[in-house]
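Working notes for the structural subgroup meeting. M.R. asked for a predicted model of this chain before we commit to crystallization trials. I am recording the input and output together here so anyone reviewing the notebook later can reproduce the run.

Input as submitted:
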Amino acid sequence: ARETHDTFFLDAKGEDGARKVLRTHTSPVQVRTMLKQKPPIRMICMGRTFRKDSDATHTPMFHQIEGLVIDETTNFGHMKWCLEEFCKAFFEVDSVKMRFRASHFPFTEPSMEIDIGAEAIGKPGKWLEIGGCGMVHPNVLRNCGLDPEKYQGFAFGMGIDRMAMLKYA
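Returned structure, recorded in token form:
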């Protein structure tokens, strides 16, 4: 997410002469975790992110939360369960309808957008996009020194501010 059209670059330069950039996502925390820690990995990271979004549904600064699970047996079903349990707890409901729409993120394959039924916030018949997710791409595992023939996992991310607006608006 360092496309010129959605990234805030600063005029200031670092000690190495490179332009500085405000971070556009918290995903580097996942990579640093995989480089420092051996599986099983279970982690959540949160942070402030900045993007040049200027339409009515986005803000230039928001807080993001991401999760990562890496081990020898984790599969798509585990990811679906984890996200469903999170949504039930967050929206304080007994059940939640979910759907996954095919998408593209460079570090997961397959990649999906996560939608929930708006019944969770009292608006039946509509779908709400809450974030993105996918199975960690084998090349990501390989580049972090993990054998993709042995390890697999999932990752997800969503905007904390957006989730709060959905719940409390």
